[in-house]
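2024-03-11 09:14:02 INFO worker-7 job=invfold-0412 stage=load source=structure_tokens
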């Protein structure tokens, strides 16, 4: 369940003009992370990110239309189970799962999940919980933030009471800096012999969970196209000065008028020194000075090409 969570069109602005530094290409080996070892592989910070994404998804989901399931599929499943003494045939379960996969259900939120037991356990490298309703709510809410979803099934293997799939997916999140989320992994579906339904859905990711979270900070554009993307690139690199350069225009727009008004009042003999407004006034002056200095540094940095 990715938490989780198209490149914007238009003219591109060079990284030097926006204060971005050239980015080094770093290679990392693939690491398989299984849900069964989430306590060892995933720290409290990453779990907090997951729960935060779930909360954000609920807020976003409240403003968007949610994918609706098919009542016909549920009715057909109930009828089939009634005919077979409360058991769903394996061929029927697999066919239902294929329909869900065709809709990229576990990243898009679309799909009936008719093959799942209502109390199915869902687990991934971040967290585990029970309940189809919660799963559908999470993927439905976050799926509403995803664009250009591309899910490919690379392996489909049935054995005993399990079905194991391998997949890779990518999407672009509908955020101001439009990060691209991409991962590969697999899902193990465990069937209940008495009902035939899926009672456990366990995901593995062939990548470090922390690396997936870091993708959320990186814009999908290779070259930053706006200040937000410059800021996110700098943040992902731990570049505090680059982050500051990205926000200097906003600082100038906010603090410039304040300082201008402050100068006008001082010209007529009024000032706010010694009070709360005086502290804000001083802060505005210092921020404006720093922002102007940063803009000058960026200007000369662009001229000399350093």
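2024-03-11 09:14:09 INFO worker-7 stage=emit residues=306
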């Amino acid at each position: 369940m990715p938490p989780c969570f198209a490149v914007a069109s238009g003219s591109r602005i060079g990284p030097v003009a926006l204060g971005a530094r050239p980015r080094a290409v770093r290679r990392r080996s693939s690491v398989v992370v299984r849900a069964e070892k989430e306590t060892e592989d995933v720290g409290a910070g990453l779990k907090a990110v997951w729960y935060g994404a779930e909360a954000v998804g609920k807020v976003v989901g409240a403003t968007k239309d949610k994918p609706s399931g098919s009542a016909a599929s549920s009715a057909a499943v109930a009828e089939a189970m009634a005919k077979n003494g409360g058991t769903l045939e394996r061929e029927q379960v697999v066919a239902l799962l294929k329909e869900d996969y065709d809709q990229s259900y576990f990243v898009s939120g679309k799909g009936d999940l008719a093959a799942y037991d209502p109390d199915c356990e869902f687990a991934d490298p971040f967290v585990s919980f029970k309940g189809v309703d919660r799963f559908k709510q999470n993927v439905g809410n976050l799926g509403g933030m995803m664009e250009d979803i591309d899910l490919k099934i690379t392996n489909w293997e049935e054995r005993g009471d399990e079905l194991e799939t391998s997949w890779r997916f990518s999407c672009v999140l509908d955020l101001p800096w439009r990060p691209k989320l991409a991962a590969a992994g697999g899902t193990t579906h465990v069937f209940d012999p008495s009902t035939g339904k899926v009672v456990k859905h366990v995901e593995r990711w062939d990548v470090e969970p922390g690396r997936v979270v870091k993708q959320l900070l990186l814009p999908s554009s290779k070259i930053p196209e706006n200040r937000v993307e410059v800021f996110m690139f700098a943040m992902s690199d731990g570049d505090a000065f680059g982050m500051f350069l990205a926000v200097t225009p906003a600082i100038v727009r906010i603090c410039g008028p304040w300082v201008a008004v402050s100068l006008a009042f001082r010209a007529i003999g009024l000032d706010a020194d010694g009070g709360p407004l005086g502290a804000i006034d001083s802060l505005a002056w210092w921020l404006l000075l720093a922002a102007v200095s940063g803009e000058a540094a960026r200007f000369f940095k662009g001229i000399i090409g350093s």
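2024-03-11 09:14:09 INFO worker-7 stage=report msg="The chain has two domains: 23-215, 239-304."
2024-03-11 09:14:10 INFO worker-7 job finished
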